[in-house]
Amino acid sequence: MPSTDRRRLPAAERRAQIAGAARAVALRDGLAAVTLRGVAAEAAVAPALVAHYSPSMEALVAETFAGIVAAELDEVRYLAGGDAPDALDALLRTLLGGGREDVTAVWVEAWALGRRNAELAAAVRDQMDAWHVALVELLARGAADGSLTVADPDAVAWHVLGMIDGLNAQALVRWRQDDARVALAARAVEAMVGLPRGAVAAPERATVDAGETP
Amino acid sequence: MPSTDRRRLPAAERRAQIAGAARAVALRDGLAAVTLRGVAAEAAVAPALVAHYSPSMEALVAETFAGIVAAELDEVRYLAGGDAPDALDALLRTLLGGGREDVTAVWVEAWALGRRNAELAAAVRDQMDAWHVALVELLARGAADGSLTVADPDAVAWHVLGMIDGLNAQALVRWRQDDARVALAARAVEAMVGLPRGAVAAPERATVDAGETP
DNA sequence: GCGCTAGTTGATCAAGCGATCAACTATTGA
DNA sequence: TCAATAGTTGATCGCTTGATCAACTAGCGC
User: Fold this and answer.
1) Which of A99, A183, B6, B138 is the most buried (most CB within 10 A)?
2) Reported confidence tier of residue A6, pLDDT bands at 50, 70, 90
3) Lowest-pLDDT choice from A166-170, A198-202, B60-64
4) How far apart, in Å, are the Cα atoms of A50 and each of A43, B47, B203?
5) Does position A207 have pLDDT exceeding 80, yes or no?
6) Which residues in B lie closer than 8 A to residue A174 (C-beta atoms)?
7) What are B9-40's pLDDT values in tens digits?
8) Is domain A58-214 annotated with CATH 1.10.357.10?
9) CATH number of the B57-208 domain
């Protein structure tokens, strides 16, 4: 997109292009690389134009984060459409199966940068809440049709999300991929939603098994 | 420490004072605030002196992180000295009980900054390994005396640590303290080490209970 | 074909960062 | 007491960041 971009675009289009460039930078180089000059270079545009189209860089960073994470939630929501145990299975396999390191890095950086960027912190809270609502709905669906037994869906949802985030953040730093991640997470989730062992991620599909429970 | 610090100290002492100032800044304002000028101000010293005593700021940040986290590990190691189930109980209560937000923030920032600071990234891996070794030893102790049943101690240890980190990182952003955190984590851990429900954190001591498992 | 609107840019500012180095001086050993 | 040692500092450089603004001009409506 170097040559043809000399054209000048209608405001809405340019705005969208810059948002796209910011997202690309965030996923490739991290949220901290979403700078005036970084995004401008990605969009092949003068830095001042990026500033022109967003009230502040803090806002652009927050908006970029929200866009990336909301898209991920939509995707997962689509994959986890079946009945509750299958949906939990799809959720864990998708989020812990690897290949999402870019999004995980965005999450981790958002937590860190959020301490100094109030708008980003608000966006992080919003997105966490959105994920939480989605998972609570999943649990409620399971509780309604009797496939799950959950005393405190709110707390269980927070816990499952925290577990996933922590494991993914860990994978960001560790070198080797751990095949047992999905299986172990499945055992933990089963214990929290009153499902028998293997109901979420069947042991024969998982690579490593946890200890025996007689 | 403004007036008396006009004195000049022997190298070792000054070095220790600067390390202490760096640690204080990291715990109060975050790892990202550990800058030449930030640490110098905290130690009431010229910025050049901080540079004089450390090869680079990247190194000082990495060293500060390692110091904080290693101290936490020592503390927890001391608290978790009993038999395995009790040790797990102490571990979860200590790390998830709240009041450690400063250290959690340091962890999260280290993950994020580690992507751009190779020395810090190495320190993060080292400390994660140290925590992992400590937890694997705890699990091995339990397996040896028959109080735990763990097929893959390595994987279970990574999982428990990831869960703790994720829940703590979450607590960093969420406003209210969730009373169910310890109890739910205990259920998850019990499921992974072959312990009956309530063996790690007794339900009557915990605030919220997870679903029933018949 | 022309002019006005609106998209775009280069130049520039202040602030904060890490790093370097010559110069200053408190302290100590002879 | 005095000089050598070693701890300390101020000044300064180059770099990156976000932000602002006057000036330029492409493209649309008439």
Assistant:
1) A183
2) low
3) A198-202
4) 9, 35, 55
5) no
6) 125, 128, 158
7) 999 999 999 999 999 999 999 999 999 999 99
8) yes
9) 1.10.357.10
User: Which has the closest alpha carbon to A155: B103, B187, B159, B162?
Assistant: B187
Inter-residue contact A50 to A44 (CB < 8 Å): no
Token code pair at residue B51 = 């540079």
The most distant pair of C-alpha atoms in chain B lies apart, rounded to whole Å, by: 70
Q: In this complex, do B151 and A209 lie within 8 Å of one another by their Cβ atoms?
A: yes
In chain B, residues with a C-beta closer than 8 Å to the C-beta of A169 are 111, 162, 165-166, 169
Spatial separation of the C-alpha atoms in residues A89 and B5, rounded to whole Å: 60
Total Cβ atoms within 10 A of residue B30? 18
- Select from B150, B166, B162 the least CA-distant residue to A181: B162
How high is the pLDDT of residue A82? 87
CA of A110 to C1' of D22 (A): 36
Burial annotation A89-106 (CB, 10 A radius, 16+ → b, else e): bbbbbbbbeeebeebbbb
- Global confidence as pTM: 0.90
Instruction: State the smallest CA–CA distance between residue A121 and chain B in angstroms.
Output: 8
Summarised one tens digit per residue, pLDDT across range A83-108 is 999 999 999 999 998 889 999 999 99
Query: Which among B135, B183, B158, B63 has a CA at the least distance from the CA of A181?
Result: B158
Asked if A110 and B111 count as a contact pair (C-beta separation under 8 A), the reply is no
pLDDT (average), residues B105-128: 96
Encoding tokens for residue B118? 């190779």
For residue B120, give both structure tokens.
């810090």
- To test the contact with chain A by mutation, choose from B28, B117, B170 the residue with the greatest count of A C-beta atoms within 10 A, namely B170
